[in-house]
Task: inverse folding
């Protein structure tokens, strides 16, 4: 992918801010007018007022020159103000588009690119794009300055015009060569900065793990090593600048020396007045600035083009399809017979897996021709060893990923026949790694349901068994939870995450290890709450602990991405050695078919209680 899409992206974004662009360019052109008028005024003042002895012309020239300086300073300020306003508005526009696209990109994209790289796109790269935009009015006014100077000098003295403007051609040639060498080095630096951002973000997020393992020095070394890579890439970039920028500084000075030398000879021979020589020298001085800025701008533009290309690459990625995508099943009786219930209906929907094959990489399948039916309103626990495909199975239902082969139906419709918002409105998701956003408990509960009232929030908190979490925090629902919810324990985050999933009263629940972060005493409370939560809902439980598994109407044992066995918890304990082996690897260990053992042996009432829990 070349620079074209990046340039088109920035050009379109700037084009949407025509008023700011026009205002900045207008102020810049007016500033150019004052700068071009000043040398003409100086020549007249010297020849008529100083050398001609006309004091009136001298005072008039001084007054007009002062006025031009004041007006020019005002236009310079406006030029900078409108340029910065344009840059910040475009940056905000692109950041908004980037964020909107990033949250819409499929999970597979986020699997490929670490968060630090995406963070670099939305921070460092946007800043690189923004910097040249500030200079758009300056660049336009500088071009006008060079063109206007060339015309005026050619009108006054064509020979001296060639001498004064020759450096401009040389600077342009240097700038072209400069940018060609700058490009690869700028791209390498941006890449290394993205990696560094990822490592720093990871180091900060994992600071507790680092402290717990005593690996602070190792982590510091890892960051320092990558910072060294950034430094070396930056020095390679700086070496190019150090080679070419001195030429950009030196060449205009040669032009000024030539003007003074040749112009002085022409004054001595009477071909040029003193005022005109000063005028030429003045023009030579005022074009030094634009020529110097041209070299700096070439450097900025190349890095900006690289960053714009990287940003455009993110925006070119195909987002998750939000509209309905018809499949081969569309129009079939199974598809059309079941209409989607409104979100929040609470009634269960059947979930069906038909010959599902899926892998995160080609030819490396996690699920293989899997068939599974979760009846409407039923609870199925999915159990298996690490890597058997449990979490993957749950991730396919909301279309975080699309199957490689086979179909998944929700409510009798292929998930690809739903729009994504419509499909996900039917699902309540509870992840093992319960993530809470910075803000209050109320903000987090309403995250997926911004219009939910307090009664809905209280009902969801009660169902999730999180009353003590809310009651135990100063301010209740308005208590802050801290960044990523780190102000709460793992079990508290898990219960609030479950409550968040229940706010919309979804007909289908997908819960991944809902008690993995709580102690046995609190697990008993959550299990009792789950028994109420799952009643009448279609529920897929990714479960490890026997107490949670026992809630299910049916247990599905996965092995190697296939269904190895099905049955109730008690039936599999009695009939499947592999099932007992899987449970034996869990912290709680296996339990007998008669239920969890108490201090005096098996509890004879446990099966009856368990049956009561799963009875609608």
Result:
């Amino acid at each position: 992918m070349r620079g074209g899409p990046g340039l088109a992206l920035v050009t379109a974004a700037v084009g949407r801010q025509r008023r700011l662009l026009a205002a900045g360019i207008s102020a810049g052109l007016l500033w150019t007018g004052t700068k071009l008028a000043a040398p003409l005024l100086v020549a007249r003042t010297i020849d008529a007022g100083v050398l001609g002895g006309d004091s009136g012309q001298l005072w008039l020239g001084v007054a007009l020159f002062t006025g031009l300086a004041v007006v020019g300073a005002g236009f310079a300020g406006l030029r900078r103000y409108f340029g910065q306003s344009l840059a910040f508005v475009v940056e905000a526009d692109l950041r908004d588009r980037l964020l909107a696209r990033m949250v819409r990109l499929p999970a597979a994209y986020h699997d490929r690119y670490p968060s630090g790289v995406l963070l670099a796109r939305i921070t460092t790269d946007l800043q690189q794009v923004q910097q040249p935009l500030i200079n758009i009015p300056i660049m336009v006014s500088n071009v006008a300055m060079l063109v206007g100077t060339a015309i005026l000098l050619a009108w006054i003295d064509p020979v001296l015009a060639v001498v004064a403007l020759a450096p401009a051609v040389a600077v342009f040639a240097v700038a072209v060569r400069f940018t060609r060498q700058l490009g690869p080095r700028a791209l390498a630096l941006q890449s290394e900065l993205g990696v560094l951002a990822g490592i720093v973000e990871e180091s900060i997020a994992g600071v507790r793990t680092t402290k717990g393992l005593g690996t602070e020095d190792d982590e510091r070394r890892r960051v320092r090593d990558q910072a060294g890579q950034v430094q070396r890439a930056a020095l390679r970039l700086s070496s190019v600048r150090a080679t070419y920028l001195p030429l950009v500084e030196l060449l205009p000075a040669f032009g000024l020396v030539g003007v003074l030398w040749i112009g002085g000879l022409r004054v001595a021979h009477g071909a040029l007045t003193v005022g005109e020589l000063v005028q030429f020298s003045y023009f030579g001085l005022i074009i030094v600035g634009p020529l110097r800025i041209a070299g700096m701008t070439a450097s900025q533009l190349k890095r900006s083009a690289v960053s714009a290309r990287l940003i455009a690459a993110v925006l070119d990625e195909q987002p998750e399809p939000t509209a309905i995508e018809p499949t081969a099943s569309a129009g079939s009786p199974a598809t059309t017979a079941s209409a989607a219930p409104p979100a929040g209906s609470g009634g269960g929907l059947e979930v069906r897996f038909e010959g599902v094959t899926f892998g995160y990489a080609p030819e490396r399948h996690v699920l293989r021709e899997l068939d599974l039916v979760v009846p409407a309103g039923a609870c199925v626990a999915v159990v298996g060893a690490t890597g058997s495909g449990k979490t993957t199975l749950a991730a396919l239902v909301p279309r975080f990923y699309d199957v490689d082969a086979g179909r998944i139906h929700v409510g009798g419709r292929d998930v690809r026949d739903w729009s994504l918002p419509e499909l996900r409105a039917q699902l309540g998701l509870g992840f093992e790694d319960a993530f809470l956003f910075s803000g209050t408990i109320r903000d987090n509960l309403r995250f997926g349901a911004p219009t939910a009232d307090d009664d809905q929030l209280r009902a969801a908190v009660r169902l999730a068994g999180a009353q003590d979490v809310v009651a135990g925090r100063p301010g209740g629902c308005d208590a802050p939870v801290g960044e990523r919810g780190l102000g709460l324990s793992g079990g508290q985050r898990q219960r609030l995450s479950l409550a968040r999933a229940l706010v919309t009263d979804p007909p289908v629940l997908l819960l991944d290890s809902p008690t993995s972060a709580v102690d046995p005493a609190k697990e008993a409370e959550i299990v009792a709450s789950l028994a109420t939560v799952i009643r009448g809902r279609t529920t897929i439980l990714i479960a490890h602990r026997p107490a949670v598994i026992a809630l299910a109407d049916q247990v599905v044992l996965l092995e190697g991405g296939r269904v190895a066995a099905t049955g109730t918890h008690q039936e599999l304990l009695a009939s499947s050695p592999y099932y007992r082996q899987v449970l034996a690897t869990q912290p709680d260990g296996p339990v007998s078919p008669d239920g969890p053992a108490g201090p005096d042996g098996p509890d004879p009432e446990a099966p009856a209680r368990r049956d009561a829990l799963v009875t609608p």
Remarks:
- The longest helix spans residues 216-268.
